[in-house]
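Human:
If only I could read backbone structure tokens as easily as an amino acid sequence. I am handing you a single protein, as its sequence and its fold in token form. I hope you can help me see how the letters and the tokens relate. Thank you; the sequence and its tokens follow:
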Amino acid sequence: MRSPWRLPIALVTALVVAEAAVVVMRPRDRGPDPLPVRARAYFSPTEIERAEDFRTGQIWLGVGQMALGIGALVVMVRRPPRRLMALPRPVVAGAATAAAVAVVAGLAPLPLRAIARERAKDVGLVTQDWVGWVGDVVKSEAISAAFAGAGGALLVVAMRRAGRRWWVPGAVLLVAFGAVTVYAGPVVLDPVFNKFTPLPQGELRRDVLDLADRAGVDVGQVYEMDASRRTTAANAYVNGIGRTKRVVLFDTLIKDFTPAETGFVVAHELGHVHYHDLRNGLIWLAVVAPFGVWAAAALAERLAPRDAPLGPRAVPAVALSIALVMPPVAWISNQLSRDVERRADAFALALTREPAPFVDFERRITVQNVSDPDPPGVVQALFGTHPTTLQRIGQAEAFAREADRSAEVR
């Protein structure tokens, strides 16, 4: 008999555990508190208005995409693909059903994705033609369907072996999947969409290796990515663990920014490597996943057909449950992400001791990426994975003030 309290208890527990994990794992050494700064001190009224207009439209389109994806899953729960579910082997039926669900949920928001892309093109962010974009969509949906199919097969196996406790092996598999994708993603998935070239010998490579040596960080490999084939936006990131660890720089970053500005970005990414942020992210996932999957399982029990709460016929309900449980958990995890990014900024400032290039970089990249330097609080709280531009500039200004005071003392 289903307990009426199982679902609310599971949902509340998942959110409480996620928040507790954020509190425990929150970095303590995040640098000086940002000084209050005003957007108009660094950006023109035209730049601010342009960014705000672009941000507002993209947010609403993003919310609409989420709603359409969830709506497609609701339809799949109410009108499931019975022919796929009726395939003779349950594991195959589960894989086929999950793949179909992933494709439908991925294609449903496509019109709004196209509109968002066109708006990005209007502000100069998109360089890729429609044929290339459609090709990327096809590749992305194919990969999603393959992963979903594998997940659906394993879900049916877990249900057949563990019954209502399928969420226990499900959580283990989720964490394992996260670890495998972090390790293999840079060498298996990323090259499907972009070309990665080792940073050639020259001044920039020497600067990168010098920064890594000063930071005492094993940087792994440094790659240049051909981001310009899709966008004018500039960025950099670190991914991979162990032998696949790498720092990736957009070619737009290398082309459009000064060596000092690029060096700060590299120093920021070295901060992530120094503090093992990818590994810590997997630890956070390992702590939170069991409770999140338990909550999804409890919700799926309410949504799945009463005459078939387990097996292939439950796959759409599980997919919908995961889609509903994940956003609030992600909103909580964004708190940790913002603090981790702030710590990486502090690491870069301490390593380079050049706050001025950092401020210049933040101003220029915000304009180039058409980012809102000071988004509304609710937008930042829910969707912000990094500190706002003004917070990052404020931290650099605070670092500069502390450096000036230290110089006066000497």
The chain has a mean pLDDT of 91. Residues 296 and 325 are 6 Å apart (CA to CA).
